[in-house]
Every structure is written in C-alpha cells, then in structure tokens.
Amino acid sequence: MRRTMTYLAALVCGALVVSGNSAPPATAAVPPPPVSVGANLPFSILEAENGILHGSAALRRFTPGMVVPKDANLELEASGYGLVELTNTGDSVTVRNTTGKPANTLVVRASLPDTPTGGGITAPIALYVNGAFRQNIALSSKQSWVYRQSKTNWDDPNGGGQALHFYNEFPVWVSGPPIAPGSAITFRKDPSSTSPSYAIDSVDLENVGPARTQPANSLSVISYGADPTFGTDSTIAIQTAVNDARTQHKSVWIPSGKYLTNSLAPTALDFTGVKVQGAGMWYTTIYRRVPLSPPPIGWRSQIVVGSGTTVSDLQVDSNAVYRGLHDAGGDDYGFNTGGTGWLIDRIWTRHTDANWLSGTNGTVRNSRTADSYGDGFNANNSNKYNPDKLGINLTIRNNFARGTGDDAFATYSDAGATADNSQMTGTKILNNTAVAPYWANGIRIAGGKNVEVRNNLVYTVSSDSAMEISIFGDTGRPLESATVSDNVLIGGGGWNGVRQGVRIGSPGPKSFFPTAYTNVTMERNVLRGALRAGLFVDRTFINASITDTTIDGPASQGIWVNSGVTGTGTFTRTTIKHLRPGQPAFQNDSPDTFDTN
Length: 597
Hints:
Blueprint: E1 7-8, E2 16-19, E3 43-47, E4 52-54, E5 58-61, H1 74-77, E6 82-86, E7 92-96, E8 105-111, E9 122-129, E10 132-140, E11 146-148, E12 162-164, E13 168-173, E14 184-188, E15 198-206, E16 218-220, E17 229-233, H2 235-248, E18 251-254, E19 257-261, E20 269-270, E21 275-278, E22 284-288, E23 303-305, E24 310-318, E25 335-337, E26 343-350, E27 355-357, E28 363-365, E29 368-370, E30 377-380, E31 395-397, E32 400-402, E33 409-412, E34 428-430, E35 433-435, E36 443-446, E37 451-454, E38 457-459, E39 467-470, E40 482-485, E41 488-490, E42 502-504, E43 518-523, E44 526-528, E45 535-537, E46 541-547, E47 550-552, E48 559-561, E49 566-572, E50 574-577, E51 586-588, E52 594-595
Parallel strand pairs: 1-52, 2-50, 16-18, 17-19, 18-21, 19-22, 20-23, 21-24, 22-24, 23-25, 24-26, 26-28, 26-29, 27-30, 28-31, 29-32, 30-33, 31-34, 32-35, 33-36, 34-37, 35-38, 36-39, 37-40, 38-41, 39-42, 40-43, 41-44, 42-45, 43-46, 44-47, 45-48, 46-49, 47-50, 48-51
Antiparallel strand pairs: 3-15, 4-7, 5-6, 6-15, 7-14, 8-13, 8-15, 9-10, 9-14, 11-12
C-alpha cells in the first residue's frame, strides 16, 4: 500500500533492486558510451587513453570513487575523464582506425599549457600513419585556459582567477590518401614539437564527402564581392546578397572558402527570411575577427535568424578568447534566433557563445558546436517578453556538443525581471550527444511545460551534473511538466561545489514562484559512473516519477533525498548496482516526511 506523505516514494516489493553490490576497482575507467543513444554522428571518436603508449607517455585518469577536487583539472575536463600526456621527445600514443571506413579528416582534441602571462602558445604535433610520417598538426592554447572570476581579465593567469577550459579542438584534412580502416594513427612529440607538454584527449575520424554545389535560383556572395580567400572583410558583401535574395525571393549561396567578417563592420549578419546555404561545414567557414581591445559598445558578430529562415552547411568560427561581449573576450552568440518557422541544419559553431534559440516552431538539427564560451544549444524565451521570442515548440535534434562553456544542451524558461514573460511550452531535446562540458551541466531543464528530453547521451561532465532538472534562478518559471526518457547519463558530480550525477530541484525561497513544484517523469534512463550520488532529489517542492531506471557505479549514494523535501514521488523497477563499500542504495534525509512503507 502506498501512502502519500510530504515526500512519498513507492518502493513496493521488487520496485527497488540492489544488485551487483561489489564496486568496480578504484582504477576502473569510465565505460565507453553506447552507440545506440545520442546523435547519429558522421564521425567516430577514438579516446587516446584507450591507445598504446610509447616512450614515457603517461596515462592520466580520474575514476569514480576518487576524491573530487575543488578546482578543474585536465582529467575532469577530458572526455571519459582520461587523457595521455606527452612530455619528452619521442613520446607518442597510437590509436587504430576501427571505424571500418577511411578517414580523410581528423579532429584532434588536445591541451597545451598556457604561458606565464597568458595568451597561449602554438606548437605542432606530428601525425604518423602505420609508422610513416604524414604531417604536422598545428595545436594551440591561445583560445583555451580561461581564468574564471579573474580580477583583471579572464585571459590573465595572474589575476587571481580559477583556471579551466584547458582543451581545444583542431580540425584538419589528412595529407595524402585517407587513413584506411585498420591503420595505426600515432601522435608523436617530435623534435619539432615545441610545446613543453601535450595532453591528447581524443581524435575524431570522418570521411567527408565532396563539397556541395550551388543550388538553382540562388545568389552567390562571390558576385557581391565576398572574399573566400580570407583576404578582405566580407560582412557587407554577404549581407547585401542576403538583402537582395530576400527582395528577389531567391536563396543565398556561400561557396567553399573562409570568409572574414566583423573585422571592419561592427554589425551582425541578419539572415532573416532567407535560405542561406554553404558548401558544407568542412568547406565553408564564416570567421569572425572582432577587435579584442575591446570592441566598442554595440559591436555584434552573432548571426541573426528570424521568421522563415533556413541556414545550412557552413561553419562559424571566431578569434574570441573568453566569454565577454563588450570586453576583450570578443565572443558573441553563434546563431541568435527568433520569430517563427526557422531551421538550422548541418552547421558547426566554434569559439562562440551559445547558439541562442528562441521563437516559435524552430528546429536546430544535425549540427555541432565545440569550444564554446557559453551553452552549446540553448532553447529559451529570452530574458524579457518579446513576441518574437516566446519559446514555443522549439526542437533540438541530433546534434553534437563538446567542450562547452556552459550547459551543452539546455532549455530556460525565464519570467524576466518583471515576471511578465510567459511560460515556455513544447521544448524537445532529442537524440543529442554532449561530451565533456567544462562548465555547468550536460543537459539542463530549467522550467517549462510539456518538455521532452529523450534518447540523449551525456558523456562525462567536469564541473556540475550530467543533468540538472530544476528552474532558471530566482526569475525562472517553474517546471510544470517534463518527460525525461531513454537517456544515458555518464559521470557528473564535479568540482563546482558539491554536485551529483543527476539533480532534481525546485524554486528557492527568493524565487518569483517560491512554492511551485517541479514535476518530472523519468523513464528508462541509465545513470552511470557519477562522481558522487547517482540521483539527488533536492529541496524543496518535487513531484517525481522514476521508472525502469538503472543507477550503475555511483561514487556515493545510489539515490539521495535531501532533508526538507516536500511533494510526492514514486520509484518503480529501479535498479542500483555496483555500489561502493558503505554506500547506501537509498538515503532518506527526510525521515519524518518520506515514507517507503
């Protein structure tokens, strides 16, 4: 018989199963992510820590059960919490092309040290295939190593800030023939590799197809003076082509090339109402080079997407070095959307702030973001009422985010400073993959109604939780209803205070909605390898239904209910396994208000 108390959990016979109580060894690696969950990616990720080490190359790894530090480090920011460090000439790590496909491109994720005064360094690493030298790959720390809350600027290691964001990604075309299946791929510190050390995290292998060709009834930006050789600023040329296409009811074509923008023109590109297509994210790059000294107030480099816009098949990169629109950081949103019926498809943003997604009936799909200084993809209703930014029926589907500087995927429903902004409804976060955000969470659900988060993969988180289910600060609207199903959430519980694998919370006492409940249904999720508790039910007002959930190998409690929790909840067919010695499967810190009989 189930009794409703201030917080109730239905732990009826057979509902909570504790199995496999022997914990994995303290040195056990975080398991590799499953391939059946998350985004359907056109590339494969090989982790360096699973490779063969040569010379004095060192494996560095953090595993659940180790004491979580109070600051970020290379291990926690690495995907899978592991990396290989090369410090001496001749050190190397070898991985094998096990994808079954040739690879003509690589994305190397690595960390080089900063300089004593900041600003970073650039140094090559040598690539060998089957023992034969192929090419040097230029790596850099110029856009990594930020110092949070520095008293000077976030690029200054001497300003008293907290170091984080150690890694960067480096996409390269492979010299010579594609790397054949089964080939040995070696990254080696040669005499020409001048960095004191190299932390190699992972490498992506992809066989990129040919560039797309110009579609019919389109206007080429080249015809308007855009420069694909990165020689002159193309901002005005691209915008003029878009304006003419809007008037003539045509689309815009951006051919292969690297286009310099925002070096001279302080205006944001606005693609509203037009279909804009590039030759492919490996072929067409819009590169923002904003003044970092700092830019004048009002200088924007985001790309605006309004009603009836489609953007596809291009990359956006920038020279930004940290989060700071109007100081020397130089970052801005990747894409900033609003209005109705927009589509973003097959884009790749790098070194930008969030892809800030609002409006009605908008979709971002099949896209990537990396090394951002804010969220990866954030569905929201803006920070104040705007009829073009209502946050209704927004979909984030089949995307990849790695190394983000805030939540990899998020939905934020914000009432705004005057509490007049309406509730978001119908957000869908589906079939996405989040890897190694260096700040915040893998996925964050912050308020809203009829939110669906399904079939996503989160693969290790540095600072916060694999998933946060709550609200957006004191102005955030309540989470009226959310279904979280069929996700695999690995890691979480990082260094930013005391975090857990997955956290469910609700508005605080200073909120506009202090007595509102968080209402969430969780079904068929796997929570694996949390660095602290697997699932944390936090204060204060929670209605939660947890069904067919597996919590595997948390460092501390399987499920932890904090003191002072109010609401109702059920736990049905929940399996908790691989607990560490002395850790409870279920810890109830609300003994007077939480009934399991």
